[in-house]
Amino acid sequence: MIPGQRFSSCSLEGVMVDSKLDTNVIADKLDGYTGSDITNVCRDAAMMSMRRKISGRTPSEIKKIKKEDVDLPVTMKDFEDALARCKKSVSLNDVSRYKAWMDEFGSC
């Protein structure tokens, strides 16, 4: 995450989360991610159970899947998979340049 930013579970509002999910561990893994990046990771993680259920199935087979079969709690594995797919949109170099600009010119 960007320095000074803290992971918030509001990115997971309305999403079932596994009781064993440690958001502090996830927050540590999101170092350097922007708010938008974090939202993308959370959305991707929330979709992982559905992706696993529909993988390799035909459209007619997918239509037969019950909602409760794909509406599962988000797990640490889901976040690990999402982090592998969703990369940071801002490099450390960009953050350094932004900090230097802010130091020199301040905010608007």
TrEMBL record:
Keywords: ATP-binding, Nucleotide-binding
Family the UniProt entry places it in: Belongs to the AAA ATPase family.
Domain AAA ATPase AAA+ lid: 22-62
Domain Spastin/Vps4 C-terminal: residue ranges: 70-106
Pfam families on file: AAA_lid_3 (PF17862), Vps4_C (PF09336)
Domain of life: Eukaryota
SUPFAM superfamilies from the UniProt entry: P-loop containing nucleoside triphosphate hydrolases
Protein name: Katanin p60 ATPase-containing subunit A1
